[in-house]
Amino acid sequence: MSDTFPQIKFRGQLRPSQLQVRDVAQQQLSRGEHQLHIVAPPGSGKTVLGLYLWAELIKRPALVLSPNSAIQSQWAARTDLFETDRPMPMLVSTNPEEPQLLTSLTYQAVTLPRRGDDGLDHAAMSLWEDRLIEKGQAQDPAEAKVWIRDLKKHNRDYYDERLSAYRKSVRDEAGLAGQSFEMLHQSCLKTWQRLRDVGVGLLILDECHHLVGHWGRVLSDARQYLDNPIVIGLTATPPDGDGKVPADFQRYQEFLGPIDHDVPVPAVVRDGFLAPYQDLAYFVRPSEAELRFVAQADDHLQEILEQVCTKPSDDGEAEPATPTSEIVEGKEDEPLTEEPLMLQHVGGTEAVYHEENPFDDLIPENEPPAKTPPLEVPVAVEPETADEAPRIKALVPWLLQTLETRRHATSTFKTWASFHRRDPEFADAARVFLQVREVKLPEEVPPVVIEVPLDEVPQIPVVIPVLDRYVRHALRRSPNAEDRALAERVISGLRMLGVQITETGCQACASPVGRVLAYSSEKANALVPILTAEMAAMGEAIRAVVVTDFEKTSATISEVEDLLSSEAGGAIAAFRVLVSDPQLDQLNPILVTGSSVLVDDDLSPRFEEAAKLWLSNAGYEATLTFEAETGFHVVSGSGRDWCPRVYVEMITDLFQRGLTKCLVGTRGLLGEGWDANKINVLIDLTTVTTSMTVRQLRGRSFRLDPQEPEKLADNWDVVCLAPEFSKGLDDYARFIKKHQNIFGVTDDAVIEKGVGHVHPALTELRPELLEGSVRDLNRDMLQRVTRRRETRGLWKIGTPYEGNPNHTLEMRINEAPREQGGFPPFPGAKEPWSSESLVQAIGEAIARTMVQLDMLKSAPHVLAKSRAGGYVRVLLEDANDEDSRVFVTALHEALGPLNRPRYIIPRKLKFVKGNWFSQMLPKVLGQYFEKSVDKTVTVHAVPNVLARNKETVEVYQQYWNEYVSPGFPVFALRGDGEDLLREALKKGMSPQGDFHEKEIFR
């Protein structure tokens, strides 16, 4: 077909990010591949890119499919950027009855299922009858037919609704079985015939994340019907499998293939085609009543721990009847090096924030649910049970025995390393659980090096894996009935904490505490300080949007229905805060949802006038009425055109013009497809965490505003914290997950993914410096509102964005009192070490040692930069991924707590002491009579990579003495060196601080 394809040329110039995609596409096509899966943010030029690939690379008749008619028209309109030897309108069509060289249609136009034909209705009726019999509402098909016939006669609306649902279920079952084409409407089948006749050899699927479901089933069949055309999938928000039918998600992955190129948002910002932004967070405490409820969860957890730690047990533990234990051989020379600590948030977060699929009840019941791979070998033989059988040990002695014997379920491991590899989460959690309780670990079990004080270790990530294994591996398999009853009590108790123990592991479930924190009344109150600061900084230019999950929560669970009102966490609660605050009322806020329009009472007269004019100019017929409430008016409309589509478009236009400067709405209405490029403040009060929805929501504020070339958007999260309680970080866990795939600029001008780019004190486990510093964090966030120009500068707009990861170490070093008054032990040193200068010096010593030992492939340039909150970030400039990783690991070992190092080396400081003579003289003269003495203040580990043998250690000593301190390395695994290490730990001479190994991008 390419031989007859006309010459079509792009008249513009591709952006740098588009050129990268073009290069990827060329490579794919040259290998004969027929799939191209591209992820690119809104505003990055996906339409032009798709047209360019069609016109200049692939050169085949193409079908473009979009989720709505507006996007469908955009594809046709953007062909004006191309020139050809034929009139372009003759080559492009949006009419399914007249396909052309480029045909742009909606997904609906080619996937409409047939309705009401005899075959489909017969299958739907049969399925309905089967369901009635299965649920005991009918004894046989005859009785079911009577039941359905009676329903049709007396409740026709409900009858039509259920028949439609069963039709959909039949179509879904057919689609899952690969028979989607057979269920299509005749008009769609004719359209596909015409498309095949014109030789469509390219499918461009815009917003392709919509293809997990019916559309994807049809197009998967259509690909075969069109004789395997090239498929290009374009989306800003790739879906994940959460809440999806597994077969549909698998089909999506097979149909589009893996993501071939992901254009990160920072690349498009650097190119100047998206507005730069800063991610901010405001932290609130629960109300007094909410706090009391959260505290009850702690009492509940302590009751559970009391039951399992003080339970009676027999001296000899009863072993359940199981298959012969497998002895797992470990490698004899396997080192006992520790892997990174794997403690994670576990608890009600996932279930609380799960986006429910309203069509769950229509998924065919024979569709098997996704299963978590089993963590243990199934027990093949049921043990005999007896009330008088010996009891399992209490939790602490059971943990000690498990760690000592290295027994995991039905397997026993020969080495600690192989045991740890089998279940690192439990191996880490069990040790931390014992260490926090000051229980001595078995001889051959290495302790976990915990880089926070023991009393700051969060309970939930430690306790849940321990209780889960104790229940599944011990209590539940015990022959003693009392042990099994205790297992059920633990399982029941953990459900209240948002954890469900199943046969194969633990998973999140709905947590009352999580819901209270997610929808805390204090979150809406946070709008006052946030928007007050934004108003002061931006004046009349402010355009703020507050997004919530619902108009009202309407989903409270029984345990908290007395605590949370029906409006808690919803759009109406947020709107009430705005109209009741004298300052924020000046924003003339409007609430717009799928069922309501609420307007600030001060704005109502002007809104009515502007709305009537807008409706008239747009040719819509609608009559508005206003009902007064305290602080606002409820707007109702009548007439054929009054519907959410019309009034959202109208209110968005009034927002763009500045009639209102603050919109409050729900993510369903103000999410995908909604566009208002004036937004410069987005306040996210939703609880969504899925990558797709988070990207859609954040994408609302990135659009460029031609009238505001210096635009920078502030994206706010509001997080409710009660860190003194075990479940008090549930909302923080949601915040972490939301930011897992969000890139942002940091205060030291690098791009970072995750919560760390919001503030260096925010970590994957818990916020550091939390107690007593939330006020400081909030103050810092509010001050950033005034630094928009500086933040724009951090983005380095106009410079290339490589997107290559560079490993860095970010730390906040705790200075010990013994270091106060000391100076670097070198002649002429007049300033004490700062965190930045000390880290720079140690980094130089490590990097130069590695260069001399040929461990680095390039000459090092160590860069240490200060960040907010006393943090310092260190990296090797322009290093490749492997070099930066090795360097950061070594630096962390040198600066972190002593963790069984092979060699140690002292760091000394110079302390100046005066005498009576020097004190009598003027300072200028007296300094020459002062005496100085070098004292060891800290003992550091020699990094493992530099401690392999005596020769490598001697090289490190040379640079340590040059850049950091005089001193000799000592072998610390035996003899005097081991005694010295023990003494240093006893005297608190081990380095202390907070350390984060991260990847940054430039």
Structure report:
With 1002 residues, the chain is an alpha/beta fold. Strand 19 and strand 20 form a beta hairpin. The protein contains 34 helices and 32 strands. It has a 9-stranded mixed sheet, sandwiched between helices. A 7-stranded parallel sheet has the order 5-6-3-7-8-2-9. A 6-stranded antiparallel sheet has the order 24-25-32-26-28-27, covered by helices on one side. Residues 316-325, 331-337, 339-384, 554-558 and 924-929 have low confidence and may be disordered. Helices cover 39% and strands 16% of the residues. The radius of gyration is 33 Å and the shape is globular.
Task: For this entry, give a set of tags.
32 strands; 34 helices; globular; 7-stranded parallel sheet; 9-stranded mixed sheet
Topology:
Layout: E1 8-10, H1 16-30, E2 35-39, H2 46-58, E3 62-66, H3 69-77, E4 82-84, E5 92-93, E6 102-106, H4 107-111, H5 118-134, H6 141-154, H7 156-176, H8 186-197, E7 202-206, H9 214-225, E8 230-235, H10 246-256, E9 261-262, H11 265-271, E10 277-284, H12 288-309, E11 326-328, H13 349-352, H14 395-405, E12 407-408, E13 411-413, H15 416-422, H16 424-436, H17 459-473, H18 481-496, E14 499-501, E15 506-508, H19 512-518, H20 521-525, H21 527-538, E16 544-548, H22 571-580, E17 590-592, E18 597-600, H23 604-618, E19 623-629, E20 632-638, H24 644-657, E21 662-666, E22 681-684, H25 691-698, E23 713-720, H26 730-739, E24 743-745, E25 751-753, H27 774-784, H28 788-794, E26 805-813, H29 835-852, E27 862-866, E28 872-876, H30 881-895, E29 903-913, H31 916-920, H32 923-926, E30 931-941, H33 950-963, E31 970-971, H34 975-986, E32 993-1001
Parallel strand pairs: 2-8, 2-9, 3-6, 3-7, 5-6, 7-8, 10-23, 11-13, 16-21, 16-22, 17-21, 22-23
Antiparallel strand pairs: 1-4, 12-13, 14-15, 17-18, 18-20, 19-20, 24-25, 25-32, 26-28, 26-32, 27-28, 29-30, 29-31
Helix pairs in contact: 1-2, 5-6, 5-7, 6-7, 9-10, 12-18, 14-16, 15-16, 16-17, 29-30, 29-33
